[in-house]
Amino acid sequence: MPYDLRMAGISTADDKTESFDSLRGRWRFALSRLKSEPHAAAYVADFVAFGSKWAAADHKEMSREDGITDAEAAAATADGGLDGLGRRVSGALFGGKKVDATLPAAQPYFGGVAPSEFMRPQLGKQLIGMTAWPALLSQATQPALLALAPEAAAVVPAAETAAKTLIAAIADRDLFENGGERKALFDTFNALSAAAYGGLKAFVHSHPELDLPAGWAESFFQQGVAASAQPRTLGAANALVARLEQKLGKAKAVQSELAEKEAGREAQGKAYEAALAGEAAARKAEAEAKKARKAAEAEAKKAKPKK
Description:
mainly alpha; about 0% strand
């Protein structure tokens, strides 16, 4: 029957609060301690094998973090392309004159928002607002705008790809962290530690002639957070609390900003879909009006008195 860590005198590695580096520290401590004690030799091989499991999982975690970083860099590059196109379209529309985003010619591009404000978000609202630009510019009658159509046909799809890649990278990282792989590694280590601890405790009881000291079985396992990571003075503890509170404040600010951006993206997406639907309805109505006008003209010609 497996030994239950919760009932034991050793701490459980917690995937919710500990990093992979912390888990590695626990593993390394146990492995080194087991190697140093002849009576614990039977458990060394399993702990050695765990090292490769940790390395593989750590590589997965880092590759997913790297994927997000790479996607963020690509998104920044794509955003720069959109900003450059936005500035050139603004220049073509206003020609060095005072910017007035409410002008009819500017409305299809900037939606009544000042270009500087329109280009402020990284991708997000800006990308949604520029999705129609390739088509708009390819149909522009103003030569300066028409000349920008090839650029729009390149940078807008590139930005859409960058945005999708970033979303996918974040989802991939979240799936690894919340989907079970990360927790499984911690569970494996805890089960390994529980089995070894139970065996070592049994060894103590089975060999009273060795006169092993109290806590001998517990001494093979790191107890909670490494002592070196804990503050040893009140001043150090206060400094640690201050750093953690600062990090928490920044994290909450980022959380709030991301929530606001997400809400904005959803709203913009719905608005954009509604605009497309309205445009389609207007085109249909225009086509039907033209058809009706032609039919009326034909009827008028038929009804016209002959000379």
